[in-house]
Amino acid sequence: MNTYTHYQSPLGRMTLQACEQGLLGAWFETETTMPKYLGEKSENNPVLINTIKQLDEYFAGKRTSFTLPLAAKGTVFQQSVWQALCEIPYGETWSYQQIADAIGNPKAVRAVGLANGKNPISIIVPCHRVIGKSGKLTGYAGGLSRKASLLELEKMKSLVK
After folding, report:
1. Which residues contact 134 (CB under 8 A, 6 or more apart)?
2. CA terminus-to-terminus distance, the chain
3. Residue 23's beta-bridge partner residues?
4. CA-to-CA distance for 148 and 140, rounded, in angstroms?
5. DSSP 3-state assignment of 92?
6. How far is it, in rounded angstroms, from Cα 127 to Cα 121?
7. How far apart are CA 104 and CA 86, in angstroms?
8. pTM flag (> 0.85)
9. Other CB atoms within 10 A of residue 137 CB
10. How many CA atoms lie less than 13 Å away from 130 in the CB half-sphere?
11. In sequence order, which residues have a C-beta less than 8 Å from that of residue 49 and are 6 or more positions away?
12. Which one of 2, 12, 115, 157 is CB 3.0 to 4.6 Å from 81, fit for a cystine?
């Protein structure tokens, strides 16, 4: 059974969804990829509780990676892209081409962009770390201002270490 809760991040309200296997989604309120049916509201799901704890640590600059069971639903190709996103080091950015190269499919740049845009687990699967080949910020389901804020947070915290 799927359960969900809300989380008030410094960048706005998020909806978190989990199942027995792990985290299914983490969406900002403006994202269009959130499913219409989320399941039952829960304040005591261990995955959701741990997700909130780790997000709090991330926003406080005390966490650079997440250790959560992930259970996002997607195609095999999308899953490969989302896995590659998790390989981008904290405080760094990769281009869509670098992701395509990392999954062994260098000609799939556009498909990588589409899969990146369908990532249901914002921040934790760090699609915000993907930028255009020119170095410009490109689309982010949570909004470009949030993407810029997340990259700035990581840049500032990685300089401190």
Report:
1. none
2. 41
3. 18, 70
4. 10
5. coil
6. 9
7. 16
8. yes
9. 15
10. 29
11. none
12. 115
CA–CA separation, 143 and 158 (whole Å):
23
Q: Which amino acid is it at 7? A: Y
The phi and psi torsions of 12 (rounded to 5 degrees) equal 125, 170
| Domain extent listing, the chain | 2-60, 76-159
Quick: pLDDT tens for 8-38: 999 999 999 999 999 999 999 888 888 888 9
Which amino acid type is present at position 103?
I
Question: Residue 5's CB: how many other CB atoms inside 10 A?
Answer: 19
Place of tokens 């261990």: 46
6 with 13: CB under 8 angstroms?
A: yes
Structure tokens at 25: 């989604």
Residues with catalytic roles = 127
How many Cβ atoms are within 10 Å of 80's Cβ, its own excluded? 19
Paired tokens of 97? 């081409």
Fold entry, domain 76-159: Arc Repressor Mutant, subunit A (1.10.10)
Three-state SS at 8: strand
Q: What is the pLDDT of residues 86-131, one digit of tens each?
A: 999 999 999 999 999 999 999 999 999 999 999 999 999 999 999 8
